[in-house]
Amino acid sequence: MTSQWQHQVHFGDCLEVMREIPDNSVDLIVTSPPYADARKHTYGGISADKYVDWFCERAVEMYRILAPTGSFVLNIKEKAIDGERHTYVLELFLALKREVGFRWVEEYIWHKTTAMPGKWKYRFRDSWERLPHFAKTPNMKMRQDAVKVPIGGWTDKRLNNMSSNDLSRQESSTRSGVGRRIANWQGKAMVYPTNVLHKSPVAHNTGHSAAFPEWLPEFFIKLFTDDGDVVLDPFLGSGTTYRVAARLGRIPVGIELNPVGGWIGHNGAYERGWVFA
Ligand SMILES: C[S@@+](CC[C@H](N)C(=O)[O-])C[C@H]1O[C@@H](n2cnc3c(N)ncnc32)[C@H](O)[C@@H]1O
Fold it and tell me: Could you give all domains of the chain from N- to C-terminal order, each with its CATH number?
């Protein structure tokens, strides 16, 4: 049975809205929060120095409402301030673990395969973003088979270059403890992905300046939830997470501060585009 707060886009500060959500009732939180000092005139930037406190106040609620088997995936990247990377994102990860209580299970990297070209004095163009994965307990739900990827020509190339000794080898030459009997993968069409996601940043919701590409929430929804599970995006923006969760048969819940946002209505009905005030 779905509750009143589910299948809804709630407008307001996610801190206040999450306070109305019961304990342990959300299976996945996947979100991209406003970046520090980003787009002040459109959706209110938080200064980099205050970011950790601002976020952790909300993360305490995220922790409370997350199910013991649940996961929390954040899309974030520190900006450069005064010619160096600010440390607020690294400090946030530590605070989420030490102060809020999350387990930092993994960090996925989104390699943006079609990043815009550019040149900066002391850096190359930025073509990756962080996707840390946090959980509440060691027993979170993970459906690895749901996100398999095509193996491509990788095994054939490796097999052609290997001796029969190599082919039967069970352990890596570095004795790292990682088994790698390459022949085991021969003939397999689909394999597990790595924690580096090589994907395009192209988003379908072109009305929002920071919309997710649909593959991003889709990957984590498939990996960390089952049909009928509750998926929350507390910084919903144009509603990509909501729409994808509804399409995949999950129970979507969104929270967005800016009332001129596009998602109003239920079950993925996109009623108007994102309009900045
Ligand atoms: C980076 S955007 C999210 C974009 C989203 N992933 C999408 O696909 O469109 C962050 C959003 O968080 C909203 N926001 C900022 N502070 C908020 C708060 N305290 N509570 C809820 N939403 C907030 C902003 O208005 C903005 O739309």
Answer: 22-148+192-256 (3.40.50.150), 149-191 (no CATH)
